[in-house]
């Protein structure tokens, strides 16, 4: 999906001599056309294997460490999809399996076909749906939970105070949480984070990431970034310690709901 293979080819070029030092994860399922248009979801066993071969070629590797189902093909049962993924493990093309945007039932059904190593769902201070049952299921089954958009697509850093802070081509402008009204209301989340950040003399991004990481020892956060400075800032979130009082303060002060759905 990401550049329809161009990002994999870029990483393949950048890390050609360094794959032994890294863990590589990539995905299949979202189909896109030559101009980036969305063509639907494909989880057919033959496509799962075809997509894997394309990723191996793009990356220039023999094995993918973690292979995700990006989204479930609604026309197929999860057992059939994960069954095809497990064939890739048997053939030595993939080491570990993961699924994305899955509910608790889907996780259990998938895990019964082949052990999952990772479940990737959106999770942050303004997207807390995984707390209902996903985090518990992952802990029960020994699956690492991977939190994508842990900074609320950049909103929780305080960098977006109005729609004018985003370029006209920014896809976030199409999301319900980024209307003028939603931004105004959702800034209450940023205010709470900012109070903790000021007290600890760290950035708002570091507080938001530290909160996600504090939930349990089997959570990984994957914030996106476009520059090295932000990457270094995000990594330092591991050194931010949120006390019991900090966590209680965040819990008590956070708005009861987020204005606007995720998509």
Please supply descriptive tags for the structure shown above.
TIM Barrel; alpha/beta; six-stranded parallel β-sheet; two-stranded antiparallel sheet; 263 residues; 40% helix; 14% strand
Give a description of the structure.
By secondary structure, the protein is α/β, with parallel strands linked by helices. It has a domain at 1-116: TIM Barrel. The model has no long low-confidence stretch (mean pLDDT 95). It is 40% helix and 14% strand. The protein has a six-stranded parallel beta sheet. A two-stranded antiparallel sheet has the order 2-3. It is built from nine helices and eight strands. It is globular and about 50 Å long. Helix 3 crosses helix 4 (104-113) and helix 6 (180-200) crosses helix 7 (204-213).
In short:
This protein is of the alpha/beta class. Helices cover 40% and strands 14% of the residues.
Count of distinct strands: 8
Mean pLDDT: 95
Q: What would you say the CATH architecture of the domain at 1-116 is?
A: Alpha-Beta Barrel
- Strands in their spatial order, largest beta sheet: 1-4-5-6-7-8
> Looking at the structure, what is the overall shape?
globular
User: How many distinct helices?
Assistant: 9
Q: What is the H/E order?
A: HEEEHEHEHEHEHHEHH
Largest sheet report = 6 strands, parallel
**Beta fraction:** 5-15%
Structural class comes to alpha/beta
- CATH uppermost class of the domain at 1-116: Alpha Beta
Assembly category: single chain
CATH superfamily of the domain at 1-116: NADP-dependent oxidoreductase domain
């Amino acid at each position: 999906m990401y550049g329809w293979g161009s990002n994999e080819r870029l990483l393949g070029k950048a890390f050609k001599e360094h794959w032994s030092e890294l863990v590589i994860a990539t995905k299949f399922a979202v189909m896109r056309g030559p101009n980036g248009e969305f063509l639907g979801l494909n989880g057919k066993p033959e496509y799962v294997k075809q997509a894997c071969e394309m990723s191996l070629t793009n990356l220039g590797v023999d094995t993918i460490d973690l292979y995700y189902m990006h989204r479930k093909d609604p026309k197929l049962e999860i057992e059939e999809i994960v069954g095809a993924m497990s064939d890739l493990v048997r053939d030595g093309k993939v080491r570990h399996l993961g699924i994305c945007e899955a509910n608790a039932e889907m996780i259990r059904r998938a895990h019964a076909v082949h052990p999952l190593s990772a479940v990737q769902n959106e999770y942050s201070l303004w997207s807390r749906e995984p707390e209902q049952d996903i985090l518990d299921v992952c802990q029960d089954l020994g699956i690492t939970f991977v939190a994508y958009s842990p900074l609320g697509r950049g909103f929780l850093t305080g960098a977006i105070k109005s729609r004018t802070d985003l370029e006209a081509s920014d896809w976030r402008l199409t999301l319900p949480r980024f209307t003028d009204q939603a931004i105004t209301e959702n800034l209450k989340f940023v205010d709470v984070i900012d109070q903790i950040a000021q007290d600890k003399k760290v950035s708002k991004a570091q507080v938001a990431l530290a909160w996600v990481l504090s939930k349990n020892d089997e959570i990984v956060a994957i914030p996106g970034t476009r520059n090295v400075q932000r990457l270094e800032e995000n990594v330092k979130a591991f050194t931010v310690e949120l006390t019991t009082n900090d966590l209680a303060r965040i819990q008590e002060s956070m708005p009861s709901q987020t204005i606007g759905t995720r998509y």
